[in-house]
Design a protein that fits this description.
Chain lengths: 221, 200
């Protein structure tokens, strides 16, 4: 557990000393969403109907944008080699790095979402549901993304390949999350969507770091 | 007696067979230098012994522990081509993290290790501001902390000045006298006693 906390603290410290690494995807998130009312229509009803999809698609793209650098930097400077040859659990080290990634991308997106939800005329109740879906699903995005990032870590300019690998795995999350927010707008039950998102989160938490560690060992061969 | 045993190791990269049926034993207090031209498989061999890469065939054990075991990983210290430092962290922060990865010492004396490699007063300097030689020294200061018995050093003298080389040579000598084992690759002459050599 010690190595988990040390790795988490190290990654957060590095990110805060080089803020552009995590601010760029957040800026992308805010700017893209705020362009939609200008590009589509300032009409409240149109925007509030499109809002769940807009916010969720941009969330995924922002996470994808930041995933490329999840392991690349430590691969290039040799720290990952030390992690692989370490007696410490590689899965735990990668889980710590993924947690740091979620704190730096997923968490700010959750915190910014009410503001952007209001900009797209979402009802307070739907904003609350949107935040809940983001709380459940952004950790999944980071965890599933870490598997893809491990697989392509040794490939230069692998952004497109990473997107091709990971986006299909993100689709179920997108479907359940947007449908939960959309249905909440019409007062329909959303328990089913939350069960699925919770299930995906539990499975991701239980397996992603182990798969990621295996994928990283294969990539470093 | 704890012994590093490499048995019938073969390594292929792409279509090139780098080496095959390579076997050797290293007893406590022995240092092995791997020599050979560029691309002959020196780094690959070190990576296989460290557990980073797998071989086509053969086995490696240290004190009956297999490469994949936690005990083996704790007994080996691998330092690759590059100094594994993050430029946003200071020397002491980098060294602390590397120590956490490679040893299980609770309270390592990091300042003393940096002093030993001639980096007094560089503790809080960001690694990004250091020269290549200084970065190498920070990485090699792990040798002054590590309790691993098997050191695997890939080109440890690269970027070091003559003083730096002497410091590392004397630390390898100390490690040898304490019953440790060291395998290193270098194109430079090195002044280490009881040096065995294999050529790939």
């Amino acid at each position: 557990m010690n190595i988990f906390l040390k790795t988490l603290a190290r990654d957060l410290k590095m990110a805060f000393r080089n803020p552009s690494s995590f601010l760029n995807p957040l800026m992308f998130f805010v700017i893209s969403i705020s362009l939609f009312p200008i590009a589509i229509s300032p009409d409240a009803e149109t925007l509030s109907n499109l809002a769940p999809g807009i916010i969720w698609v941009i969330t995924m793209l922002s996470v994808l944008l930041s995933l490329n650098s999840l392991f690349h930097y430590d691969y290039d400077n040799g720290v990952l080699e030390q992690a692989v040859t370490s007696h410490q659990s590689l899965s735990l080290i990668l889980f710590a790095k993924t947690t740091a990634h979620w704190i730096l991308t997923g968490l700010p997106i959750i915190l910014l979402s009410p503001l952007l939800g209001m900009a797209l005329f979402l009802e307070p109740n739907s904003i609350y549901i949107l935040m809940l879906t983001l709380c459940l699903a952004t950790p999944c995005l980071s965890l599933i993304g870490s598997i893809g990032a491990s697989l392509v870590v040794s490939i230069k300019n692998s952004g497109m390949l990473l997107s091709l690998l990971i986006l299909p795995l993100y689709i179920p999350i997108l479907i359940f999350a947007t449908s939960a927010v959309s249905q909440s707008q019409f007062g329909l039950p959303i328990n089913g969507q939350f069960y699925f998102l919770g299930f995906i989160l539990i499975v991701s938490l239980m397996t992603a770091s182990f798969v990621s560690a295996l994928a990283l060992k294969i990539s470093m061969e | 007696m704890s012994k590093l045993t490499v048995n019938n190791l073969s390594c292929q990269r792409g279509y090139n067979l780098l080496f095959e049926n390579l076997s050797f034993n290293l007893s406590p207090g022995e240092v092995l230098r791997i020599s050979g031209p560029n691309g002959s498989g020196k780094t690959s061999l070190l990576k296989i012994i460290s557990g980073l890469n797998s071989s086509e065939s053969g086995s490696i054990t240290y004190n009956q522990s297999e490469v994949s075991s936690e005990k083996y990983q704790l007994e080996t210290l691998y330092l690759g081509h590059y100094a594994p430092l993050s430029s946003e962290l200071s020397c002491i922060e980098n060294l602390e993290y590397l120590t956490n990865l490679s040893t299980d010492i609770a309270f390592p004396n990091l300042h003393k290790a940096l002093q030993a490699v001639g980096l007094t007063n560089y503790e809080n300097e960001l690694a990004g501001n250091l020269s290549a030689g200084q970065k190498r020294r920070v990485a090699l200061s792990l040798l002054f902390i590590s309790q691993s018995k098997v050191w695997l050093l890939d080109e440890p003298f690269t970027s070091l000045d003559s003083d730096g080389i002497k410091i590392i040579e004397s630390q390898i000598e100390k490690h040898r006298l304490e019953g440790g084992v060291c395998i290193l690759t270098t194109h430079q002459d090195c002044n280490i006693k009881n040096l065995k050599e294999i050529s790939l």
